[in-house]
Write a structure and sequence with these properties.
The structure holds 2 protein chains of 2 kinds. Chain A is mainly α. Chain A has 11 helices and 4 strands; from the N terminus they run H-H-H-H-E-E-E-H-H-H-H-E-H-H-H. Chain A has a single domain, classed as ABC transporter involved in vitamin B12 uptake, BtuC, CATH 1.10.3470. In chain A, the strands form 2 sheets. Chain A has a two-stranded antiparallel ribbon. A two-stranded antiparallel ribbon of chain A has the order 2-3. A two-stranded antiparallel sheet of chain B has the order 1-2. A two-stranded parallel ribbon of chain B has the order 3-4. In chain B, strand 1 and strand 2 form a beta hairpin. In chain B, helix 4 packs across helix 15 and helix 5 crosses helix 6. The longest helix of chain B has 45 residues. The chains are: A mainly alpha, B mainly alpha. At the A-B interface, helix 2, helix 3, helix 4, strand 1 and helix 7 of A face helix 1, strand 1, strand 2, helix 7 and helix 14 of B.
Chain lengths: 304, 433
C-alpha cells in the first residue's frame, strides 16, 4: 500500500509534466488541426534553456533558491516561446492550405533540425544538474517503507495547478482566448469578423511553447539529467496524453497527462522498467483504435 | 490568411530596415541561450562557456541576409521561384521519361562502377550503401509517395528483415538465397499485422503511431536478449553465396570458394563487388516492381486514395485494404533491404535501427519528390556521401531536417517534381488541404 502510494505520488508529478506538454499539442491541434511534431523538441529546448539559466545564475552568484527558480522560469518561458514563434513562422505558416502531408513532413524536418541543432551546440553527452531543491516530508510509514513527498514534487504540482487555472481563465475570459476559440471553430469567419488569425495562431504556439518550457524546467529539476534526445520520447508520451484526454480539450490534456504519468510509474514499479515506453505506445494505439475522441473530446466529423 | 495584395512598387527603406531588425532580434533571442552559452564539463562538474562572438556573427548574418533579401529580391524572388519550378518541371520531364538517355547512362555507370579505373573496394562499399538507401527509399515511396501514408517507423521493417534473416540463417542454417525471400515475407506479414489495426486512422495519427511502432521494435530488440542478444547484437551472419560458392580465402569443409572454382587469385574485393551486384539487382527489381504496380489497378487505387479518400469510398474502394497492400509491400521491400544489410555487414545490433534511420529514409523520399522514383537516387547519394565525409557527417541530419522544411515550403512536390496524378480532370485544381 505504501509502495503504491509512493508510486502514485511519483506518477502524478510525472503526469503534471506530461500534461503541460500535452496542452501545447492539444491547443495547436484545436486551432489548426495539425500535430506539431516539433513540440517534443520545444520541451527539450525548454529543459536546456532552464539548465543554462541555472548555471548562468549560479555564475552570477544568485544563490537564493526561490528567486533563482522564478528567474529561471521566466527566462525558460521567454526564450522557448521565441522558438515556438519562430517555428510556426518558418515551418508552418507558409504551408497553410498546402497538401495534407506537407505540414506533417515540415514538422518532422523541424524536429530533426532542432534535435541536431542542440546536439551540435551543446554536445551529445548527457548534462547533469546537481539537485537544487532538497528535502521533503514523510507522509506515512508502514512496514519499514516511508512514503515521501519532496518539496520539489509539491512545487511541481502546485505550479502546474496554478498554470492550469491561469490558462483556463485566459482561454475562457480574455479577448485572446475568445479569438482562439473563434479561430478553432471557423477560421475564415473569424478573419471576416476582424480577428487577426495569423497573430492568434502565433500566440497559440507561443503559449504552448511557454508551457512546454515550464515542463522542461520541471524535468531538469526533478531528474537532473537531460540530453538532446529527451524531447522525442517525452513528445510521444505527451501526445498520447493529449489523445487519451481527447485532443482539442484542455482539461482532457491535463487528465491524460496525469493518467499517462501514473500508468508509467505503476508499470515501471510492478511490471518492467525496460518496457515502460512500450506500455504508453500500446495505450496510444488502443485509444486511437477504440476511442479516437479520447475521454473528454468531441467527435470530429470529416468534411467533404 | 488573407490574400496578399500586389506588392507596392514603392521603395520603403524604413520598413525594410525595421523588418531586418525584427528578424535579427528574433535570431538573437534564439541564439543567445543555446549558441551563446555552452554547457561543458569541468573536472567532472558542469560549467558554462560563453560564445557571444558566434551569436554576434549569426545575428549580423541574419540582419544582412534579411536586408539583402528584401532589398534585391522583392520582385526577383517571385520570378526566381517561377524559373525554378520551370527548370524543375523540365528536369522532371527529362528524368520522368523512362526512355531518356540519361537514365540508361546512369544504369550503365552503375553496372560498370566496380571496373572503372578510379574504382576501389571502398568506393564500391559506399555505392552498396547508397543502393541500400535507394532500395529503402523506393520501398517507402510506395507507402508515402504513392499511397500518401506517412510512415515514420519504416526502420521497423528494415529491422524485422535484418533480424529475421540473421535468425533464420543462424538457427536454421538457411543460406542467403533461402532466407532472403523468407525475411521479405516475414516483414510483409509484420507490416500486415501492424497495419491492420491502425490504417483506419487519419493521416497524422497514422504517422505518430508508426513512429511508436519504430520505437517499440527498437525497445524489443534491445531488451529481448534470448532472441536478439540485446544491445550486443548478432555476430557471424553468413554472407551471400553464388550458387554455393563462398567468398572467402579458404572455405570450410564441404564448401567451394569462388576463386578456386574460377581459378582466380583470391582478392577480398571480389566479395565487395559481389555484394554490390546483389543489391544493384535487388534495387532494380524493386524499381521495376513498384513502377509496374503503379500502373495496375491497385496502384491507381493508391493514387486515388492519396488524392481524395472520401471520393474513393464513395466509388466502392475499400480504403483499409488498399492502404494495407501499400503498407505490406513497402514493408516487404524494407525487409529485403534489411536482410541484405545483415548479410553484407555480418553483424547487426539495435544501433542500426533507430529513429534517425527512419528520418533519413523519409528525408530521401521527400527530397527526391514523393512519388518520384528517380529523385530518390540523387537524394540517397547525397545522404550517404555526407555520412562518409567525416567533417560534414555531424551536420548531415541538420541539413536534412532543414531541407525537409525548405522543400515543403518552396517546392512541396520535391526537387524533381513528378507527383502528378496519372489522370486529372482540371489542370490546376488545388489539392484538398
Amino acid at each position: 500500500m505504501a509502495y503504491f502510494l509512493q508510486q502514485l505520488i511519483n506518477g502524478v508529478t510525472l503526469g503534471a509534466i506530461y500534461g503541460l506538454i500535452a496542452i501545447g499539442y492539444t491547443m495547436v491541434y484545436g486551432i489548426i488541426g495539425m500535430i506539431n511534431f516539433a513540440h517534443g523538441e520545444i520541451f527539450m529546448i525548454g529543459a536546456f534553456v532552464a539548465l543554462i539559466s541555472f548555471l548562468v545564475l549560479g555564475y552570477w552568484g544568485v544563490s537564493y533558491v526561490p528567486l533563482a527558480l522564478f528567474l529561471v522560469l521566466l527566462s525558460a518561458m521567454a526564450f522557448t516561446a521565441a522558438y515556438g514563434w519562430a517555428i510556426e513562422r518558418v515551418a508552418y505558416r507558409p504551408l497553410r492550405g498546402s497538401f495534407r502531408l506537407a505540414p506533417l513532413i515540415s514538422a518532422i524536418g523541424m524536429s530533426i533540425l532542432l534535435q541536431n541543432y542542440v546536439q551540435l551546440t551543446q554536445g551529445a553527452r548527457v548534462k547533469t544538474l546537481p539537485p537544487l531543491v532538497a528535502g521533503g516530508f514523510t507522509l506515512m510509514r508502514s512496514g519499514g517503507f516511508d512514503v515521501q513527498i519532496s518539496y520539489l514534487q509539491i512545487f511541481i504540482v502546485l505550479l502546474t495547478v496554478a498554470l492550469m487555472a491561469g490558462f483556463t481563465l485566459m482561454i475562457g475570459r480574455t479577448p485572446l482566448g475568445r479569438a482562439q476559440r473563434a479561430c478553432e471553430q471557423d477560421m475564415t469567419m473569424a478573419a471576416l469578423l476582424g480577428i487577426d488569425v495569423d497573430r492568434t495562431i502565433s500566440l497559440t504556439f507561443v503559449m504552448g511553447a511557454a508551457l512546454a518550457a515550464v515542463a522542461g524546467m520541471m524535468f531538469t529539476l526533478r531528474y537532473g539529467v537531460i540530453d538532446f534526445f529527451i524531447g522525442f520520447v517525452a513528445g510521444i508520451k505527451a501526445f498520447t496524453a493529449a489523445v487519451l484526454g481527447g485532443i482539442g480539450s484542455l482539461p482532457g490534456a491535463m487528465l491524460g497527462g496525469l493518467l499517462i504519468g501514473v500508468i508509467e510509474a505503476m508499470w515501471s514499479a510492478y511490471f518492467s522498467v525496460e518496457y515502460k515506453d512500450v506500455s504508453v505506445f500500446v495505450i496510444l494505439v488502443l485509444v486511437l483504435i477504440f476511442r479516437p475522441t479520447g475521454l473528454l473530446g468531441q467527435p470530429d466529423l470529416e468534411k467533404v | 490568411m488573407a490574400m496578399e495584395a500586389l506588392p507596392p512598387r514603392r521603395f520603403d527603406m524604413g520598413a525594410i530596415l525595421r523588418d531586418a531588425a525584427i528578424a535579427a532580434a528574433v535570431a538573437l533571442a534564439l541564439a543567445l541561450p543555446l549558441i551563446g552559452v555552452q554547457t561543458i564539463e569541468i573536472d567532472g562538474a558542469i560549467g558554462i562557456r560563453t560564445r557571444f562572438d558566434a551569436v554576434a556573427i549569426g545575428v549580423a548574418a541574419v540582419f544582412l541576409g534579411r536586408l539583402l533579401l528584401k532589398l534585391a529580391w522583392t520582385g526577383i524572388a517571385e520570378r526566381l521561384g517561377r524559373i525554378g519550378s520551370r527548370a524543375g518541371a523540365q528536369a522532371a520531364a527529362v528524368v520522368g521519361d523512362h526512355s531518356a538517355i540519361s537514365v540508361l547512362l546512369v544504369l550503365l555507370f552503375a553496372v560498370a562502377l566496380p571496373f572503372l579505373p578510379f574504382s576501389s573496394p571502398y568506393l564500391v562499399g559506399v555505392a552498396t550503401f547508397v543502393l541500400i538507401y535507394v532500395m529503402l527509399g523506393w520501398g517507402l515511396n510506395v507507402v508515402v509517395g504513392f499511397a500518401g501514408l506517412l510512415d515514420l517507423g519504416y526502420v521497423a521493417f528494415y529491422a524485422v528483415g535484418a533480424y529475421s534473416f540473421a535468425l533464420l540463417a543462424l538457427w536454421f542454417g538457411l543460406s542467403f538465397w533461402q532466407a532472403l525471400p523468407l525475411a521479405g515475407l516475414f516483414a510483409a506479414f509484420f507490416g500486415f499485422v501492424l497495419g491492420f489495426p491502425v490504417l483506419r486512422l487519419r493521416g497524422d495519427y497514422l504517422a505518430i503511431v508508426t513512429l511508436g511502432f519504430g520505437e517499440i521494435i527498437h525497445t524489443i530488440l534491445q531488451n529481448w536478449v534470448p532472441v536478439t542478444n540485446g544491445p550486443a547484437g548478432i555476430l557471424n551472419i553468413p554472407a551471400p553465396t553464388l550458387f554455393g560458392l563462398v567468398f572467402q580465402a579458404r572455405a570450410r569443409s564441404g564448401a567451394t570458394t569462388f576463386h578456386e572454382f574460377f581459378h582466380l587469385p583470391f582478392h577480398p574485393a571480389q566479395r565487395v563487388i559481389f555484394a554490390y551486384y546483389i543489391i544493384l539487382v535487388l534495387a532494380l527489381l524493386t524499381n521495376l516492381f513498384t513502377l509496374r504496380l503503379r500502373k495496375l489497378p491497385i496502384g491507381r487505387a493508391w493514387e486515388a486514395l492519396r488524392e481524395d479518400e472520401i471520393a474513393c469510398r464513395a466509388l466502392g474502394i475499400n480504403p483499409t485494404t488498399v492502404k494495407l497492400s501499400a503498407f505490406a509491400i513497402g514493408a516487404m521491400i524494407g525487409g529485403l533491404a534489411g536482410a541484405f544489410f545483415a548479410a553484407k555487414q555480418n553483424f547487426i545490433s539495435p544501433e542500426s535501427f533507430t529513429f534517425a534511420e527512419s528520418a533519413g529514409i523519409l528525408a530521401i523520399v521527400v527530397l527526391g519528390g514523393m512519388g518520384n522514383p528517380l529523385g530518390v537516387v540523387p537524394a540517397a547519394i547525397l545522404l550517404v556521401s555526407l555520412t562518409e565525409l567525416r567533417e560534414l557527417a555531424q551536420y548531415r541530419m541538420l541539413f536534412f531536417g532543414a531541407a525537409m522544411v525548405a522543400i515543403m515550403v518552396w517546392r512541396p512536390r520535391g526537387l524533381l517534381a513528378h507527383r502528378a496524378p496519372s489522370l486529372r480532370l482540371w489542370r490546376d485544381r488545388r489539392e484538398r488541404a
